Every structure is written in C-alpha cells, then in structure tokens.
Amino acid sequence: MNGEHAFFIDHARCIGCHSCVQACEECDTHRGQSMIDLETIQRPDSVQTAPQVCMHCEDPVCAQVCPADAIKMTPDGVVQSALAPRCVGCSNCVLACPFGVPKYQVELDQMMKCDMCYDRTSVGKRPMCATVCPSQALAFTSRAEIERTRRGHAVNEWRFGGETVRTQVYVMVPAGVPAVRVDLLRRDGLQAAPRGAAPPVDDVAVLLGEA
Amino acid sequence: MSANPATAAGSDVTRATGWGLAVAALVVAGIYVGSRGLRDFDPALVSYAGASVFAAFGLGYRYAMWLRRPPTRLYWRRGWAIFAQKGARRHNLRVLGRLVWDNVVTQRFIERRSRVRWAAHWLIAWGCLLAAAVTFPLSFGWIRFETAPDSQQVYRAFVFGLHILSFRLDGWLAPLAFNVLDLAAVLVLAGLFLALWRRGRDRGALVVQQFASDLLPLALLFAVCVTGLFLTVSTHLLRGLQYGFLSQLHAATVILTLLYLPFGKFFHVFQRPAQLGVAFYKRAGEDGAPARCERCGEPFASRLHVDDLKQVEAALGVRYGLADGGHYQDLCPACRRKTLALAQGALWQAAGRGPERTETHG
Amino acid sequence: MARLPVSVPDLVRRYGPHLNRAPAGGWAPAGEPDRVVPTHCCFCGQQCGIQLKVRRGKVVGFEPWEDFPFNRGKLCPKGVKRYLQDEHPDRLRAPLERRDGDFFAEVSWDAALDRTAREIRRIQDRHGADAVALLTGASLTNERAYLMGKFARVALRTPHIDYNGRLCMVSAAAASKRMLGIDRAANPWSDIPRAEVVLVVGANVAECAPITTDYLWQARENGARIIVLDPRLTPIARTVDLFIPVKPGGDIGVLNGMLHVMIGRGWIDRRFIADHTTGWDEVVEAVKPYTPEHGGAIAGVPPALIVRAAELWGPAKTSFLLHARGLEHHAKGVDNCMAAINLVLASGRIGREGCGYAMITGQGNGQGGREQGQKCDQLPGARDIENPDHRRHIAGLWGVPEASLPGKGLSAVPLVEAIHEGRIKGLLLLCFNPVVSLPDGNFVREALERLEFFAVIDFFLSETARYADLVLPGALMEEDEGTTTNVEGRVIHHRKVVDPPPGAREDWRIVCDLAARLGAGDKFAYRSPAEIFDELRAASRGGVADYYGITWDRIDREHGVAWPCPTLDHPGTPRLYEGARFHFPDGRARFQPVTWRPAAEPTDAEYPVVLTTGRVVAHYLSGTQTRRIGALVDQAPQPVCEMHPKLAATLGVADGDVVRIESRRGAITVRAQVVRTIRPDTVFVAYHWPGDRSANTLTVRAIDPVSHIPEFKVCAVRVTKVERPVDALAALPPEAGGLR
User: Fold this and answer.
1) C351 in a domain, yes or no?
2) In a 3-state reduction of DSSP, which class is residue A90?
3) What are the tens digits of pLDDT across the range C590-624?
4) In chain C, what residues touch B204 (CB-CB under 8 Å)?
5) Number of C-beta neighbours around residue B251 at 10 A
C-alpha cells in the first residue's frame, strides 16, 4: 500500500450519495463491478446511510473459514478477492466476515471483494471510493493528517462479542474510545441495535412537537 | 482448534507425512506391478518416474494438510455424506456426472469470467491432461511399444504387459501415436499465448499477479512444451542434432514441473474437483430451513450453513458469541454493515457531538 | 403549429432517452488510455475538476483530478458517470426537420441553417424584430453565453433573450446586487471551514452541491456549530447541531426572528453597522414584530428553535451563511435572500477570513452564465442594458450604433407567456428544456405548440426539442473549449477532450453560421472560442464582472482565477468586500427591511397540502443528460412523493402506493415514499422527469416581482391514492417518464 497512507471511515459524515458505489466499478481490478456497499439503514425513519469497504483484517476471518484456501493477502496486508482457480463459490467468507464485506457473484460462482483498489494503491494512488467521496466519510490519507484535521481519533480495533478484530482500515471515534464494540443485539423484534444506541428515528413531527 | 495448537500442528504434520508416504508408496507399487516387476520399465525414464513419486508424496501431504483445515474438513465430510445419502444416490450420481462434464470436461464456468480466459484455460488443461495420459503410463512402464516379430512395418502396443493393438507404421494411427505429445504441446502453447495476451491487456490482473503463483507455472509449461517440440524438430528436421542435450533439458523441465506440482497453482487441478461437493451442500441447504437474520428477520443463508459455520468458527477460535447469549453469526451481512455505522454513530452521540434535538425537545 | 410529430412513445423509441451503461469498448479490461485530459464536470455549479481518459479518440473513463483545489479529486455520482454521455446512442448526428405524422427527417446543415434564417427573417419582416426570441441556458460556457447575448442583440436585434438561470440564481443575484453591490458568492469556499458557525438555509447540500459537504464537515471538525433550515431532514441535517424544519416559504419567520432575538440580546456589531452600512434603523423597525413566537408561527416551527439558532449565530466571532434554491425559489425569493443578508450584515461578519456569505450556484455555469449578457436586462460584464454608459461601451466594442441595441426584454416566464399569447412567434432555444423545467408544464407545452417557427440546438432530442421544427445537433462540453465560472466566482477552463461526433457541430459554430445567414457575419467571424473569450474580456473590462486580466493560460497555471480581475497582473479576487468595502459609490452595504408575505398559492380546503420540489443527487436539472446514463437512472429511476406517515395515514396511503398529486394546473401520478424526515404538512417531488411524472406540471406560474424567479418551492396540491395507471406514458421506461 501507499507507504504512510491509510484508509479511514467516518460513518457520521456519510450523506448516502452513492459516489463510492458508482466510482468503485471504475477500478481496474474489478471493472464494471462495484465492490463497496452503501446501506440505507432504515429509510422510513431516517436518511442515515452506511458505507462499507473491506476493513482488511490483520487475521481475516474470511480467509480462515475458506475451505479452498483461496483468500490471500498481499505482503502489505491487503486482502484480495478469492483466487479464481481455487474459489468454489461456497460463501463461507460472505457469511463469516464480521463486516459483511465479501460478495458472492452468482454469475461467476466466485467470491469477489474490495481490494482497496490494489491497482491504484499499489502505485501510490488513492482508492477510487475515498478519492471521490464528497463527504470524505471515506478518506485515504496519512494518520498525521487525520489527527490534525479530525476530531476524535482513529481506531482499528473491533469487538464482535468475544472476538477482537484488528484491521488495516481505521474508523473515527471520540477521544478515549479504544475500540468499537458491536456487542449486543437487542432482541425486541426487528429493531436490534448496538448497546446504548436507540434505533435512528429522525422524525420531523417529533422535532415540531407534533408527535 | 485444540487446546494445544503446537501439538495439534505437530500431529497434523505427522499425519500428513503419513498420507504423503502412503500415496508415494502406492505410486511405487503401481509402477512395480504395472511394469510387471519392472520388466517393462524403461530405465531411460527413471528420472521421470522418480519425480512422479516425489510429486505423489507432495500431493498426498498437501492434500492431507489441506483437509485438516476445519472449513475444508467440514465441507469434505458434509459433501460426501450428502452425496451418499440413501435414496438420493442415483440422482446424485447423475448430478455428479453433469458437474464433471461442466466443470472438468468443458470448463464452461470460466467463460462467464471471459471467453479468452476460458479458451486459454481449456487449451492448457486439455493439453496437459493429454500429455499426462501419455507420459505417466510410459515412464511408469505401464505401456510399451515394440516392433512386431514378423514385420518391421507393424508396431505392437502393450498395456500392463497385455498386447492390445497393432498398427502399421505407414498407417494413419502411427504418426498420431508418435506425435501426440507434440499435439499436446501445441494446445498448451496456444493456451499460454492466449493467457499471456489476456493478462497483458488486463490492468487489474497485471497489478495483482505474483511471479511465483501466476507467471512461474506459465513459464514452466512453456519450457516443457518448447523443449519437447525441439526434440521432434531435432529428430525429423535436423537429423538428431543435439538430441541428447535436448532430451536432458526436456527432462529437467518436466521434473521441475512435477516437483512444483503440489505447491503452486497446479495444486488446484487436484483440489478443485474435491469441491464439486459444494454443489450438493448448497442444494441440501436450500432444501432445509433458512437462517433468518436476528435483526431484520429476512432469510440470508441456509440454517445448515450457518450452524456449520458456527462449528467451524468454534474450531478456529473465532468467538462470535455475544453478551446476551446471541451469536454474531446470526446477523445477516447487510445488518452487520448497518450495525457498524449505528455503533459508530452511538459513540459520537454518547460523546455529546450529536444533534441538539434532545435538548430542545425532551 | 408545432405539435409533436408522432406520439411520445414513438419519439422515445427512436430518440430515447435510452440508457448508456458501459464505456466505449465495454467494461472488459482496457489498456492504457492514450491521453488523460484535465477538465471539469458539467453537472453543477461547483464545476469539479475531473480528468477524462481518452483511447482511440473516445472518452473511455475518468481519473480524479486531485490537484484541482476546489474538489481535490472528489466527485458526486453525476461526475463519476458523466463520461457515459460520450458515445451515447441517442446523440443527434444530423440536423432534423419535423415531418408531421412521420418523426423527423435528417437534412443537410445548409438546408437546416438556410431554413432557420429564412423563417426568422420572415417572422421578423412580418411581425417585427421582437417577434423572435431566444432562450438559452446557464450550463453554457462563458464564451457561448456571451455569444448568445450578442447574437440576440446584433444578429436578431430582439430584446427577448433570457436563460434558464432565471429558474435558478436570480433571487440571490438581485439581493446581493441590492445589498452588497455584486452578484457573486462573497467568499471562496476555503472560508467555510474557518467559521465558528455555519447557517445553511434551503440548501440540500448533500444532493445538490455534494462537494460542499466536506467543507461543512471540515468546519465541524474545527469545532463549528452548524444550523440547517429545510422542510426535509436532509442528509446533512441529520447530524448537524441544529435542524429547523421550516415550512416551505416560512424562512423569513426564522431569519427575522433570529435578528429580533439578536437585537434584543445585543448580539450585533454596532460599530460595523455604523461605519459600513445604511438602512439599519428600518430593519430594526421591520423585525420588531418578529418575536420567536411570531416567527415560529410563520415558519411553522417551535419558537425555541429560533431562539437557539440566534444563540448559536449571534455571539459567534466568525460565521458563514449559505443558501440555495430552497430560499430563492419563491415569489418572495429576493426578500428571502435579503432577510438572510440582513443577518450577515448585522453580525458584521463578512469580507474577512472565516466570515462570509454565499449563494450555492446550481447550474453548470450558473455564475458565469449570468454575467455575459444573456439575461434579458443585461449586457456583458454584468452590465445594465438600460444604462447609457454601459450601452455605449458594448455598442462600441461590437461596432454597432448604440441605438441599434434593443432595450430590456422579457424574462423567461413572461417570455413563454408572450409566446402563449401569440406576441412572440419564433423561438431559437438551446441548453434549456422548459417543458420539464418551467412551472406549469401544460402551459409551456401549449405555448410551444403555438410557435410559427421553433428551432432548437441540442445534442439529444430533449422533451422540448420534440416540439421543434428544426433541431440542430450541438456538442457536449468536452467536445468544445471554453471557460465557466464556478460557485466561488473562480473562472476555469474546460478543455476540448474529443471532437464532436460526425454530423454534430460546436454550438458557437452553429450560431456564427446562423449569424452570417442573417447578414451579421462580420460581427461573428470567430475562428475559435479563444477569440470569443478575448472579446468577452474586453467587453467585461471595467464592468462589475471584470474578466479582463484573466487568460486561459493564467487559468491553467493558477487553477482558475476569481473575478473581478481587471489587469493581467491582478491576482484575482477570491474574497469580495475585504475591508468592509461594498460595491457602491459610498462603499456601504445596504440593509433592506423585509416583511414576510404568504405564498402565491396558499393551501386551502380544496388543495390542503404544500408541494415543494427539488432535486436528487443522481440527476441534473431537467434530466436530458442524466436520464440517459444507466448507472444514474438505476440510482434514481423515477420521482417519488415523499410524505410523512402522519399525512399518509390521513390519506390511507402506504409506502410504495401510487398516488395522484393534483394542483389547479394539472396532475401527476407517482409512487409514495412514506418517511418521517419531512414535515407532515408538506410533500416533496423531485422535478427531473417529464410528462405525467413531471413535478412542474403542478407548480405555480407565479414569479418574484424583482427577480422573476418562479415559485417552485410552494404550491397547493391534493393527494389521493390511486391504482397504477396503465396508459402508454406510464408504460414507458421510467427515464422517459414511465412509472414503475
């Protein structure tokens, strides 16, 4: 990867414009296929959206669960799409990735995923999504620059239940937060959410005192 | 994995070594028996046979190691169990036949990635298979040719010492039989050129390719084909010029390729067919209950698959168990992505840098 | 006369919109491009830098242009996919002449230009010069905008030229000119992140000016508080400090209310007001009644929100106020903008680093397009067509008698009304799709049907061009060269990337050829857009929008130059009003007292719901270009009617149901999207689509008395749940106006 540069996500900046999704398919390693996800969390209640690139785990669960041993990392830590001769299209990686990243391509019977625009980052360019992102919810820059220009700090540690995952990609969190915990699924119907966070309801009627 | 990974790894190596030795022994036994106690064995080809035995060891070892991986083992076992289910065997056999036709014989699944890619792969694959079908039996002493005692113009072919056919040197079969390796070489070379041409045009492929895994195998095949063709050229056009040197060079390239076989890209030739079971596994999953996402309630995979993955994850030491007794594996990929953003947003809200809404309207 | 030659479905089948989904050569891995040309996106006023990749004479993709300072490589989805209009199957490749009952026939350029000139002469001979009008656009380069203004006054000698910037920028322009003296964003965008508080009024930044988002968020990273006024909880409103869900047309309630609170609490810069402004006392008097309660009642929001906004805005040391069409698209649009500028002037925070004010220009060349003399009342250099000095300067430059220059003409909406009344009989139009973009769409169609002769220059057969007698195939931005002026007033260079396809011609060539046929060839003897730019520079010299010191070379070297730039060694003026010097003889800004008045068409028992309109991020203006790009259509295939669940419940409408929206002028049928992020008394429909999906079928043909901007943001409608229509229009693909 680009020496001192790293990938940073700040979900709170995302405006759901789909630039990342549209630009992703312009990348040469997967031309015509968009590998990034942009989720609209719950449109009736909110305009909140969630961009998701591959986090490039230090010890990727996707590679661990691959029966064909088809998911490899480059020496600089970028987790690549499944090797075409090996991938058997079983979707273990799709289901096991804690970030929901790998994509099973039905027509190819293969897994493909975000490879941080390896054709670009390997020659010092920034990935497509982070270059075009109008809100810079996705940013590819140096740690020093991020710390100089953003509030909070960047962490790359995640807890999924008892599993700690460290990633090459960072996320912006308030100062003092050492890791992002994705721990509790509140089991009250369909509104499960992380601990302490109410489901997003941006209700204008409530703001107007009419609800 | 187990409580003591070091010991487990150690025992895996021992076990795999055992498998490797067993496969190698099987090949040695096959050579001995097939060549009728080495009576039909051609000592000139002993280096080929030796390399084949080593390759057999390597393949056995690698295969066993590969099957020790929890996800592979589980898929392997599940696949065979589903395949061998009572009542479905005949149907499964038919399906298997079709899978073999599609995936091995025609390899059409590659065409969906690109036509050039498919053509290249098909030419290389069938060139190699054709060459292997000739080279291994020959170097193992399983087949041999000799001139008929009654006529210099008739050749007789023996398989495992049994005379199976005779053909005339001036007939149509003879040039085919003697040049089958040249034909194979031409197929492979055509495939190689297509493959390199495609790579050269695909900026994406150029970037992610690595010498050892992507270019070395192509280089090896190229060397084998070219040196083999030189042999033919030397025999027929140059009256045997440098034949001895060329045949040693050819042998060297073939032996190198055989030694590389278990470790590099060629391993997929052995690995990939084992995964035909995935198709059976997927069907069994579809026939069973779906797994529904804990957050959105939508089906996102088969129950079988999700439960098996939990086992695999447990074996790998991936601890997705959640504080409330739930399991992160029960969340669909889309809801995982959403949950990440919600978790990040909640952290900022908790830090007091969210909207002021609650202040104004409690 | 000019009814559609064949039915809409037939026209769609032949001329599109069809979707282009893949670059030239397909998605298969491509080799290295032959050239990578830095230029600009054409799809909004921000004019982001972008590089287009060319292989074998065709645009095959893009590469972000990270060196260009405004956007640093950032692009919205329109920018990312803009290159797909190159090599588009719908491109017009020969002049088309209507054949009633049988589509259009391809004719030669000579025949088409001859006939156009002949028809114009015939109409002008019989009905006078002002029976022919010209409608143009704010997406044209400065060179083309300048050329169109000159063409109208010198070749056609008609006063009636106006442009679709009339639907966009004019309220802000009028307010700025009246109060600050110059119609331009007062500050470069780099001042936004330096502000302590940012007030965003009626600007859906995330969708209509996406690149500005990063500037806002950067301000927030630096500790700024952000306030947003909008009837909808937009993507930026979701996380800002204070969101005020103002009722459409109620902004003055909040703005005057804030000023009322600020005066009460002493959060005003008395020294600045005394030294650098006039008219403050009248403003104090005017906002006296605007208590938070009164303002809140007008704006339809709790008074506490107004107080809180004043608390954030009032005492700040630095600030930036941004507004866009949400504030401007009203029959009181100028008043709205003036109320906003009052807030800025009262705080004294303008003309310094981190202290600023800007309208977010919408159209591609929304800024430059309104300076070069294609407005009905304007001459180049943002000069006044009724000012004798200005007339003399331009007449001299053009080599025509001053008396021959026509006076002030009709603005867009009255111009279309004059066509409807039969006073204007001939129309030449380019870069404008009024059938989709003007209010009261049915009226516009009727007007076009009454024209004796109608010629259109366009690269696609737009919904408006379908009514034409003659269509002249023009060129895309990347097939021509020229300059535009971005949202900051930065003049930038659009390079020629590829040639127009065979059969199509650059707009300026078409116009010059036409001028020659009209006997004005000597005044239009340009050999390149560079020559037009040089004349433009001279024409603007000494004017407000002075481009004289700007050359294409300088632009390339300096990544754009901000006007005014009177001399070649002048650095340009990124920030206006430094030292609190305003553009009036006395240097003082003019406060303007503003009083709220209701919308032109208030809701009533018959039409009880407010309709407000706007844009989505995937489409540009009337959609002629973006509704032809597959990826953008996939992102936003058709308009929806956003409504709050409370309103939906009273209407018995569920998410995804088909609803009929009716106003006094017409009805459309679209799917409902039930969301909590909109005021319960308001519905929203984006306007990019034609026909029975066209929001502007509903909007009211009421205009601001000063700026003549139409009231796109408020009209009264009723909404009912209906079955999905099964007519031929509904069966069309959604990009052509169908319903899915």
Assistant:
1) yes
2) coil
3) 999 999 999 999 999 999 999 999 999 999 999 99
4) 29
5) 18
When pLDDT is averaged across residues C351-370 and rounded to a whole number, the result is 96
**ipTM beyond cut 0.90:** yes
Does residue A106 sit within a domain? no
Interface of A with B in 3-32 (CB under 8 A): 9-12, 14, 27-31
Domain containing C25 equals: 21-85
Q: C342 in a domain, yes or no?
A: yes
Put simply, the answer to whether C29 touches B356 (Cβ < 8 Å) is no
Q: Does C673 touch chain A (CB under 8 A)?
A: yes
How sure is the predictor about B361, in pLDDT bands with cuts at 50, 70 and 90? very low
State how far residue B245 is from chain A, nearest Cα, in angstroms.
35
DSSP assignments along C289-349, one per residue: T--HHHHHHHHTS-HHHHHHHHHHHTT-SSEEEEE-HHHHSSTTHHHHHHHHHHHHHHHT-
**In this structure, are C279 and C384 located in the same domain?**
no
Find the helix or strand (DSSP H, E) in which A163 lies: strand A163-173
Q: Tell me the β-bridge partners of C322.
A: C200, C358
Q: Give the predicted TM-score (pTM) of the model.
A: 0.92
Are C235 and A207 a contacting pair at CB < 8 A? no
Q: How do beta strands C666-674 and A37-40 pair?
A: unpaired
Angle among Cα C325, C331, C333 to the nearest 5 degrees reads 45
**In a 10 Å sphere around its CB, with 0-12 CB exposed, 13-18 middle and 19+ buried, how is residue C1 labelled?**
middle
Among B207, B208, B210, B230, CA closest to B218: B210
A66 in a structural domain: no
Shortest Cα–Cα distance, A96 to chain B (Å): 7
The number of folded domains in chain C is: 4
State whether residue A162 sits within 8 Å of chain B by CB: yes
Length of chain C: 740
C29–B205: do the CB atoms touch at under 8 Å? yes
Six-digit token string for C676: 């909590």
Query: Taking CB atoms and an 8 Å limit, are B112 and A108 in contact across chains?
Result: yes
Question: Average pLDDT, stretch C338-361?
Answer: 97
State how far residue C606 is from chain A, nearest Cα, in angstroms.
23
Judge: A177–B347 Cβ closer than 8 Å, yes or no: yes
CA distance C223 to chain B (A): 10
